[in-house]
Recover the amino acids of this structure.
């Protein structure tokens, strides 16, 4: 097996985490690179109210994107949300104890001084010691515990997993009550999207649920789900679609319609674009368009609510869409007034899954449109009963429920 280049933070805890991965995969030779990240170098910024940023991962992930390494190993709780474009989670490990611990040397006084970097940990400590005082905390685990050894504080709150990995379980400590940071104690292995062979090497460490997505595009991967993408629908563009209109409003009700429209035409500068939801609006912006209004609900009913804000005399719209689109928009214009010019841009057809696809190998099947539901039923006869299913959007969910009756 070829050597695999690892990048990780340079702290003692990070090095221990790399050793943990090595011990789980003794058949692989790892070439290790240890890097100081922004979070390691910046000791003044407080972590107490920090969101899910790349504070502790930025430089490592750039190494990965620059192909200086094959994978990065992170504390899963430190991952930014969303991940940098081009990166994917190869595995989420089982990890070790996820609890938080209050470490101390001797019996705590009536008003102990506690060092912690987290508001949540402070509140949980206060449940045990209501009169406790608190100071902010930064640095490696060893540096944090040094405050305790020097008697500069009475207690330090750290992750139990850190104590275990650094062989520091001899310290006196109390586990704090309540929930901890999601994925604390677990490790995340990151790689570049599309490198399936490398991802498969680490699959044996991945404890995430396996989800099958059968829509046109793969949903963003998360720490909760390892998503496999096998489209069961395909788009058939309609030849000779007339995309030029003088209507003052242009309606987009899907990302597919956006792509097919912009492949062939450009909106007039004074045309106001209305988008069915944030995802469709984002695609318009990516294609160089400018969205005037976004429907609050990502359904045709949501678009109707937006159109109701336009006076009937001004409600002149052009709507490029799928041949399978529901008639509710046409019915709205017939009843409420205005004009609607339509253009059928594409049709949606079933697309066969791989012959060896075994639904029972997955924990969940994700449906992203009504067409996905129809296609699944076409090939498998019914919705999955042996695994969980989920639907993205109320219309798709309604379609799923109808199939269950």
């Amino acid at each position: 097996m070829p050597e695999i280049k690892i990048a990780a933070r340079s702290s003692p805890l990070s090095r221990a985490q790399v050793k943990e991965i090595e011990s789980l995969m003794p058949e692989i030779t790892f070439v290790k690179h240890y890097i100081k990240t922004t979070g390691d170098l910046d000791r003044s910024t407080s972590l107490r109210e920090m969101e899910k940023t790349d504070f502790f991962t930025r430089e490592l992930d750039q190494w990965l994107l620059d192909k200086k390494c094959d994978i990065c190993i992170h504390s899963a709780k430190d991952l930014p949300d969303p991940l940098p474009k081009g990166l994917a989670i190869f595995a989420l490990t089982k990890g070790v104890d996820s609890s938080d611990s209050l470490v101390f040397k001797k019996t705590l006084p009536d008003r102990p001084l506690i060092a912690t970097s987290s508001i949540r940990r402070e509140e949980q400590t206060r449940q045990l010691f209501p009169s406790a005082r608190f100071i902010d905390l930064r640095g490696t685990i060893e540096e944090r515990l040094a405050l305790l050894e020097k008697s500069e504080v009475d207690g330090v709150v750290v992750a139990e997993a850190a104590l275990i990995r650094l062989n520091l379980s001899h310290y006196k400590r109390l586990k704090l009550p309540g929930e901890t940071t999601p994925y604390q104690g677990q490790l995340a292995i990151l790689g570049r999207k599309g490198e399936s062979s490398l991802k498969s090497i680490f699959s044996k460490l991945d404890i995430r649920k396996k989800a099958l997505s059968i829509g046109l595009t793969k949903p963003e991967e998360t720490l909760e789900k390892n998503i496999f993408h096998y489209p069961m629908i395909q788009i058939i563009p309609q030849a000779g679609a007339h995309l030029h209109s003088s209507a003052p409003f242009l309606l987009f009700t899907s990302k597919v319609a956006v792509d097919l429209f912009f492949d062939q035409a450009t909106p007039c500068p004074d045309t106001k674009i209305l988008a069915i939801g944030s995802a469709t609006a984002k695609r318009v912006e990516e294609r160089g368009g400018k969205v005037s209004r976004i429907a609050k609900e990502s359904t045709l009913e949501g678009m109707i609510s937006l159109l109701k804000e336009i006076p009937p005399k001004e409600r002149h719209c052009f709507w490029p869409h799928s041949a399978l689109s529901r008639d509710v928009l046409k019915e709205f214009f017939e009843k409420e007034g205005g004009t609607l010019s339509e253009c059928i841009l594409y049709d949606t057809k079933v697309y066969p899954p791989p012959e060896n696809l075994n639904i029972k190998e997955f924990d969940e099947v994700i449906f992203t449109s009504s067409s996905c539901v129809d296609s699944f039923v076409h090939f498998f006869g019914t919705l999955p009963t042996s695994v969980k299913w989920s639907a993205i959007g109320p219309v798709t969910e309604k379609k799923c429920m109808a199939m269950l009756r």
Summary: The chain has a mean pLDDT of 92. Residues 227-232+351-404 form one domain. Residues 12-24 form the longest helix (13 residues). The chain is about 30% helix and 25% strand.
